[in-house]
Amino acid sequence: MSPKKVKLAWNDLKMLDKEHQAMTDYLSFLSEGKTERESWQILEGWAEKVGFMPLDALKSFKPGQKVRLSVRGKAGILAIAGKRPLCDGFRMVASHIDAPRLDIKQNPLYEEEGMAFFKTHYYGGIKKYQWTALPLALHGVVVLRDGHKVQIVVGEDEDDPIFTINDLLPHLAKDQYEKKLSEGISGEGLNLLLGHNPANEDGEEPVKCAVLSILKNKYGIEEDDFVSAELEAVPSGKARYAGFDRSFIAGYGQDDRVCAFAAWKGIEEIEQPEWTTIVLFVDKEEIGSDSNTGMKAHYFENFVAELLALQNGTYDGLMVRRSMARAKALSADVAAGYDPNYAEVMDKRNSAFMGRGLVISKYTGSRGKSGSNDANPEFISEVRQILDEAKVTWQTAELGKVDQGGGGTIAQYMAIYGMEVLDCGVGILSMHAPWEISSVADLIMMMRGYHAFLVYHD
User: Fold this and answer.
1) What's the rounded Cα separation, in Å, for the pair 179 and 129?
2) E strands within 345-442?
3) What are the structural domains of the chain?
4) How distant, in Å, are the alpha carbons of 143, 386, 454 from that of 389?
5) 3-state secondary structure of 328
6) For 85-203, where are the E strands, in sequence order?
7) Does pLDDT of 5 surpass 70?
8) pTM
9) What distance in Å separates the CA atoms of residue 416 and residue 372, rounded to the nearest whole number?
10) Is the pLDDT of residue 2 over 80?
11) 226 near 142, Cβ under 8 Å?
12) Side-chain half-sphere exposure of 121, counting CA atoms within 13 A
């Protein structure tokens, strides 16, 4: 038997004009949406332009009507009413818009030996050493004592200062070299350098006072306002094409904003779907999907209940459960792209290769599939047919060798409602690094695949 022929997404690409524009939009999305708040703000703005109405503005939910729900400004849902009643189920693509980063602590500002710093607490799975000696920007909000919310972005404009975390010079790193890679930089050592000019301030900590003076003059922030702040240190700079042939995209937060963007493109042009069509953008996936903006919260279930009440004139809990159990969904999240430099951790027969299209994963999880959804083969077969009919290049993969490690997605939290769920995304190189790499060809196949899934009907 001859070996299976490798199918490349590039061979079937023939990019449309709108897909060229989509790549430009994606670069902008990555560059401007570096927090979950910023990402949802962009997505909601796009949705509003094509007719998605706020949920509380709707009096009914009839075929073709478009609705959106913002979840505390950090997550959101888009839906289009289908021709079939919502109680029969729906079609959904669900992604997350949070990403690994450094969060500023609630009592962060201090001075030591004439330098001012912010204390940070890392968010999600990072390699701590990757975040030193790197240009960083501050993004987020500070809610003042009086309730006024101040939005902050510093370090992105070419006239802005940037921030950084100091590393140890190699000349004095003898002891550091002897440590494990995971211990070379400690979590408490990830302190953001802010300045060292006392600016004629008096007192025991003149540099700290000078920094506070800048914050007060520019933003109205007092030191105790950090208690009610949500500030994130993220890589500074715009997303870019990578490679001589511009076939890769390099940018921060592509896990999982590459899938979030593709999910948006999948629903953007839909007008009259057969099934009610839903796209979900959640927060907190990188830390276990907890909190009232993560997938473990009940806002999605409540959203479906609201739509059913609009469609039927009354709330019916049993109908909500039936709708959820009859749903079919793609958990839109990325896979580990095969990197020849680290081949020893991958099962080459079951890896996501760059440029070979959309990736479907029957299961994720760790070692013995712990924390996995493990999709049913009947549903996988259905998704295969949809992708093949839409001429979407796709491949299958799992997350590295069996006992090497692993990871999870939000699929398991969707599956608890009884719906069919399959993990589906693209391969990413340098996942969770400050700069991640995706493939242009794979992204386009993912956009096409998500759209095909959302509009498909048997």
Assistant:
1) 12
2) 358-361, 365-366, 394-396, 406-407, 420-425, 427-428, 436-439
3) 9-99+252-455 (3.40.630.10), 101-235 (2.30.250.10)
4) 50, 5, 14
5) strand
6) 90-96, 101-112, 115-123, 136-143, 149-154, 164-165, 192-195
7) no
8) 0.96
9) 12
10) no
11) yes
12) 8
